[in-house]
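Q: Please design a sequence for this.
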């Protein structure tokens, strides 16, 4: 089975491990992700603050290129990219004049018929029904599912899960053998794109998120956004300084959690690329032989280029 794939800029750079884990997980379920030819940046968090036509033209071109290739479903793992493509599709569908102007700018045919799927929607549509039968190493950990703010908002357009207490990622963690904890910061902002310009703000916002999860006995946090992962993982020194305590909780992508559960190894999933070392406590796996989980899931040495 072939499905369209839009990696976006982050998954070709700082979030390479996210792409590696998504592609590896798809292969386990006999799914081939086909990268959209000649794709461009979606504009992320900046373009719509600078130029409306540009902010719509960038995502529209991506979708038009997918249509040109006959792609009906596009998997967009980055929450920011998913948000921009989905919002653009909605705005162009609501305003025919604006749609005509944008298609003139990109000089491509655009119908708006391509389905935009975030990573959880992709898993739900193509993997969930077969997931439990593929689990060979249950992810037996207390897990804080962090959705962030872009994956579920604006609800009127995305219509994806509940805004304040989403559950879709929790369900996937449970199907992989984990315990999704109940906590208060599921959809709070991590600081988003201010990681460089306002590191202090990111440390405070992300620190509060990690602190709440840690206080509720979470052993790992799982995310579905490279920007969220970067703030919660890479900014850990600044976070620990803000909190005045050390939180060593690893942050994994949902594709990495499911990948571990179906038996993929740490290197294939890119766990060695994380800044905060991925170490999980040695715990017995229920209903499994042998009943054990490796204490050190990944032991990053030097990051590979």
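A: Design:
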């Amino acid at each position: 089975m072939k499905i369209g794939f839009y990696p976006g800029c982050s998954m070709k750079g700082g979030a390479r491990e996210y792409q590696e884990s998504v592609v590896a997980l798809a292969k386990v379920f006999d799914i081939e992700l086909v990268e959209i030819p000649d794709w461009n940046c979606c504009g992320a968090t900046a373009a719509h603050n600078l130029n409306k036509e540009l902010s719509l033209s960038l995502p529209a071109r991506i979708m038009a290129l997918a249509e040109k290739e006959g792609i009906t479903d596009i998997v967009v793992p980055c929450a920011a990219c998913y948000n921009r493509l989905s919002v653009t599709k909605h705005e162009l569908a609501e305003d025919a004049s604006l749609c005509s102007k944008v298609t003139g700018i990109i000089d491509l045919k655009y119908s708006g018929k391509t389905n935009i799927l975030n990573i959880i929607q992709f898993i739900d549509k193509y993997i969930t029904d077969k997931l439990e039968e593929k689990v060979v190493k249950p992810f037996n950990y207390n897990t804080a599912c962090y959705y962030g703010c872009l994956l579920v908002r604006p609800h009127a357009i995305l219509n994806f899960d509940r805004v304040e207490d989403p559950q879709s990622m929790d369900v996937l963690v449970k199907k992989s053998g984990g315990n999704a904890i109940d906590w208060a910061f599921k959809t709070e902002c991590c600081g988003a794109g201010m990681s460089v310009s306002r590191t202090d703000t990111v440390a405070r916002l992300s620190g509060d998120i990690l602190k709440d999860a840690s206080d509720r006995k979470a052993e790992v946090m799982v995310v579905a956004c490279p920007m969220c992962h970067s703030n919660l993982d890479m900014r850990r020194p600044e976070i620990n300084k803000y909190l005045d305590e050390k939180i060593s909780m690893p942050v994994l992508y949902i594709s990495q959690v499911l990948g571990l559960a179906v038996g993929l190894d740490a290197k294939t999933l890119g766990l060695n690329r994380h800044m905060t070392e991925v170490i999980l406590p040695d715990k017995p796996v229920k209903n499994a032989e042998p009943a054990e989980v490796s204490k050190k899931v990944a032991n990053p040495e030097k990051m590979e280029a």
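Q: Thanks. Anything notable?
A: The chain has a mean pLDDT of 91. The first helix runs from residue 16 to 28.
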